[in-house]
Amino acid sequence: VQLVQSGAELRNPGASVKVSCKASGFTFIKSYIHWVRQRPGQGLEWMGRIDPEDGDTKYGQSFRDRVTFTADTSTDTAYLDLNSLSSEDSAVYYCNAGANWGQGTQVTVSS
Predict the structure, then answer these.
(1) Distance between CA atoms of 19 and 104, rounded to whole angstroms?
(2) What is the rounded CA–CA span in Å between residue 63 and residue 94?
(3) Is pLDDT at 64 greater than 90 in this prediction?
(4) Which of 19, 39, 43 is nearest to 86 (CA)?
(5) What residues contact 55, with CB distance under 8 A and at least 6 apart?
(6) Average pLDDT in the 60-83 region?
């Protein structure tokens, strides 16, 4: 089982970022994909989840207006889109499916 995420991103404030999470070794449509982030010196923060089978999403209240999750069942890949970035969004972003975690994607927001 593997979740492989896209590479590190550097963005200016106000921009958007898209992070991918490619799954293998399990049935993609049978597992919720959760997104979690960790800011420097902080704990894990749940951002929400998507059901790849039907695209149903649930977003954490802190992100509801700025985040979109999608899933491509033809490539077993989940995506996180986060817009209106600020320095507070600089963090490592992780995808998760059950006991399996992606390796994390560093997103840095800086002018």
Answers:
(1) 10
(2) 15
(3) no
(4) 39
(5) 70, 71
(6) 96
